[in-house]
Amino acid sequence: MTCDAFRDLINGYVAGRLPADQMEAMARHASACDGCRDDMDAAVALAGPLATLPRDIAPETDLWPGVARRIVPAPWRQRVLAAAAVLLLMAGSSVTTAVLMRRPPSAVPSVAGAEVAQAIEARYAPRTLELAAVLDRERKDLAPATVAAIERNLAVIDRAIAESRAALDKDPSDPDLRALFRTSQAQRVALLEQATRIAREL
Amino acid sequence: MVESSVRRAQAGDQDAFAALYRAHVGRIHALCLRLEGDSARAAELTQDVFVRAWQRLGTFRGESSFATWLHRLAVNVVLSDRRSAFRRGRRLLSTGEPERFERAGECHAGADLDLEGAIARLPAGARAVFVLHDVEGYTHEEIAESAGIASGTSKAQLFRARRLLREMLNA
């Protein structure tokens, strides 16, 4: 047994957790190596006191007020996020609903509609993916409330995109639906840009 | 109960986060106190840990228990703080200060110390490795990764720490 291997196994030896053959090898090595025997003696001497150390030690004073002061989001950020949520809810839901309500539904999505939607998506996808990747990296620095607000807003926009895309599938020639689909995609990019800007400013 | 508090805290519920703080503050403070050896600094670091935990709650995916996630976060906060403080050209857990190690044992000879007090008097590098390995159960590889040192350095620090502690306790 080498000294390095011996030292790796000291804690197991002191606790009696090693297999019998390793326990014997450890004892043989310790009897022949002064340095390792000294290491083992030190570990044995500390084993008892170590077992009595408490797992918890309460702070002398209540630290929560200091923590609470530091985890409150800045008021301006709360206002920005609240305003963004309202604007996006209005732009995402009510406009979509208003446009969709005047469209008679058709039974089968057309191939042309899917192609139109894909062409629009292709223009926004690179920037959307780029910003989403940045946000994924930086979200660890955002407060949970901020992350939750961003995700709520993204969910609203994603619903608007899904609704306008479904309508576009049915009537790809309608310029209003194309504009609506483009607007929804642009809104998602705008929200991601705003969120990454907030994360960078922290 | 804890998982429910975590989910609510992740959604921005500060009351839920306060409950998590109450449940874990003793464990985190004990870690900070033993790693730092100074109660005022340990209190500051404990606060830093919970502020950082709040900021990073979104990254907790439940792959380990919340206690484990928080404990590892605390280790990183304390070691990062130490690295910043020691960023004057000297490596954090360097073994290159044999005289300082020897002095640590000598200058407290005769003092009536328990293990807790003796740990606080260890040199910073040896104290960190001893606390993380022998008290908290981290492996040398884990310590090496967190502290940015070689695992061999971690082993050397551990054995120096044990010898110094034995000397202090036997004095």
Summed over residues and divided by their number, the pLDDT of chain B gives a mean of 83
Report the total helices of chain B: 9
Low-confidence stretches of chain A: 86-109
CATH C-level name of the largest domain in chain B: Mainly Alpha
Inertia-based shape of chain B: elongated
Please give the radius of gyration of chain B in angstroms.
17 Å
CATH level-four homologous superfamily name of the largest domain in chain B = RNA polymerase sigma factor, region 2, helix turn helix motif
How would you describe what is shown here?
The complex is a heterodimer of chains A (202) and B (171). Chain A is an all-alpha fold. Chain A has 2 domains: 49 residues, no CATH class; 129 residues, no CATH class. Helix content of chain A is 78%, strand content 0%. Chain A is built from 9 helices and no strands. In chain A, helix 6 runs parallel beside helix 8. In chain A, 27% of the residues are buried. About 12% of the residues of chain A have low confidence. With 171 residues, chain B is mainly α. Chain B has 2 domains: 84 residues, RNA polymerase sigma factor, region 2, helix turn helix motif (Rna Polymerase Sigma Factor, Chain: A); 73 residues, Arc Repressor Mutant, subunit A (Orthogonal Bundle). Helix content of chain B is 73%, strand content 0%. Chain B is built from 9 helices and no strands. In chain B, helix 2 packs across helix 3, helix 2 crosses helix 7 and helix 8 packs across helix 9. The longest helix of chain B is centred in the N-terminal third of the chain and has 23 residues. Chains A and B meet through helix 1, helix 4, helix 5 and helix 8 of A and helix 2, helix 3 and helix 9 of B.
What labels describe this entry?
heterodimer, A: mainly alpha, 2 domains, elongated, B: mainly alpha, Rna Polymerase Sigma Factor, Chain: A, Arc Repressor Mutant, subunit A, 9 helices, 73% helix
